[in-house]
């Protein structure tokens, strides 16, 4: 099955009955963009730009960032790139950007909150992305957004830069990885171009389980019905406004979750490079009808174990 999946890796992501689901790759380094294409990725659904900031002793300058992002765009050869702006703080400290000691770093200065404390750093990154993209499809995504205020502040920088540099083929969206953002998806959907659901953090914050906890992290299961309901709300709000929704957390490559996510209506799955062929193979094996059944079954269960058992029994 592995070999067959690999042989069909350049086919478009589709269910067996033809519903289009884009399959993209998550990258932690632009050097892997060519490998993603070679594995059949239809784009990059999450570029974790932290690597670039971690690899330098200080904030990388404009030219350095332009060169890095350009490398990804060149390898992608016209495929879209979803670049997440700098997502540090919490579990991802940046040595040259110290954050005052916090009792709860996961609930502290991190993601877009931290980035907005030094808007000039965010602005340089956004400028580099826009310059590197030129006319190529760039999707900018802000991490750890809790409500529309943070989005508007960050978006205003993009709008200002676009007025200066030119518009290009750019969409601006947010990650849905804090429960408040999922609950408020209708208000966000009115203003963003897309959502990408970060199920790793969304699960952590919904279940109050540290995703890296030595004993508890196995219980941080994204197939929990509470997480699935938040995904459902997010997709419904997005589609009501004609926006697309991706999944960029690990749940997107969980074979038990794929039919559920398709049944909930997600439009894109972004997974690690090596998983792209397998995810496409799983999609070919389901239909919209079976996917709906999986979603309905999962949503009606009380625990993640019950979800997994019920899906297994279908
Ligand atoms: C997530 O939170 O699901 C996600 C994709 O982002 P990261 O794993 O980088 O926090
Ligand atoms: Mg995250």
Automatic annotation (TrEMBL):
It is found in: Cytoplasm. It comes from the Bacteria. Belongs to the PEP-utilizing enzyme family. This is phosphoenolpyruvate--protein phosphotransferase. It comes from Salinicola rhizosphaerae. The gene is fruI. The chain holds residues 651 to 964 of 964 of the full protein.
